[in-house]
Prior knowledge:
The chain has three domains: 20-61 and 168-338 and 379-488, Outer membrane efflux proteins (OEP), CATH 1.20.1600.10; 68-77 and 150-166 and 339-374, no CATH class; 84-142, no CATH class. It is rod-shaped. With 492 residues, it is of the alpha+beta class. The protein has helices at 2-15, 25-35, 37-57, 170-237, 242-277, 306-312, 314-337, 381-448, 453-488, and strands at 21-23, 63-72, 77-78, 84-87, 90-91, 97-98, 108-111, 114-117, 139-142, 148-149, 153-166, 285-287, 340-351, 363-373.
Amino acid sequence: MKRLWFFFIILNISGMAQAQTILSLSDCRNLALENNKQLQIGRENIKKASEENKAAFTQYLPDISLTGAYFYNQKKISLLDGDKYLPVGTVMPDGSFGFTPEQINNSWTLINGSPAPLDANGNPFNPAANPDKILWKEHAIIPKKNFELDIHNVFAGTVSLVQPVFMGGKISAYNQITRYAEDLAKTMNQTGIREVILQVDQAYWQTVSLVGKQTLSQNYVSMLRQMDHDVQAMITEGIATRAEGLSVRVKLNEAEMTLLQVEDGAQLSRMLLAQLCGLPLDGKIVLADEKAEFASIAELPSNGGVEEAFANRSELKSLDIAAKIYKKKEALVVADMLPTVALAGNYMVMNPNSYNGFQNKFAGSWNVGVMVNVPVFHWGEKQHKLKAAQAETRIKQLEMDEAKEKIELQVNQSVFKLKEAQKKLIAAGKNRESADENLRYANLGFKEGVIPSLNVMEAQTAWFKAESELIDAKIAVMLGQAELEKALGTKN
């Protein structure tokens, strides 16, 4: 509905580019909230924090990953440097490997009645200690090419699953931190909304004030021009002096200069309001309260409104949430001191594979296990980090106490300022009534010729001043109400 309303507002503005657009204070607020870039950033921060919170929840779930790899190798692997020859022996009755005299070419001799083989030089030797001196009659050949492994093209793939079982409370703390971060983004955006609303209110009532003074200055100039016309006629008739005419002209010039300044100020104020609302600076806008009797005596909060401000101010909520976040960061540091346990499962496939000899085809296997990590000694690093986190928590608590003191002062100042503005409004209203009556009598006396023009100009000046002060008093009341609403946290 807000977007639909905003669409119709923009359509109305674009369709009436040359016409005047009447905007109420509520319209200006809504346009500013829709177009303000900082608030748009705030809304995106809320979305960001929300997605991070959802991402944090996934840490409870198993992590499944798929990995694949391919390698091309220039050379094959050979387990032998050349063809190998193995002697053919005999399995002895005791199960050991040995030989008989018929299986070797060595000559034999008797030493202490026992047969012993002779080497190529005719010296007896121990075949167990010097098997290289045995001259075998028969050998089994092991070809080098049969022990070459083709690894030119290697493929590998793994599916892994890791399920956290105990992380020392780290996952839970991280989830709570991201949840607090989302709440913090919302409260900070609420603070930004109230700041923008106050800026719009100040620009709106400032524009209303200057438009009112512009109308007042125009009426004042019209009065002086009529007075100048009347005095010039009286000079022609010889009833008034030229000095009186010059006095009226000086006053008229001053009033016209004041009118020019007020017109420029009103134009600049409209441009500022248009910029806050996201409207074209050269657009012609008219404010709904330009002609209205908008000032009223607002009801002041009971008990000073301090407790209400403590309950409503988003700044305090932000600091409270920040303190909770830092408290959870302490839990993260503590979690780093505790053991962690996780379950792991993998399925790996390879080509070539060695599961059944060496084969150039795909084959796989799976495994499961438990991973445990126990911190033992880190030179006091974790304790220092914990103390630092605890200090950050205390800092946020102290900042909250300080913020409460400032908010209490701000509320009291706003209440006092509004009371003073209300008193000035009552006094300005009475002063305006007296100035109106004084001007009426002066005009009647001037027409009857019993009051000189100088007295009439004094009455006109007093009337102009009284009207201007009344406008200022009305605007002060409206601004005081806006500031008090922000101080109490009720401006939304």
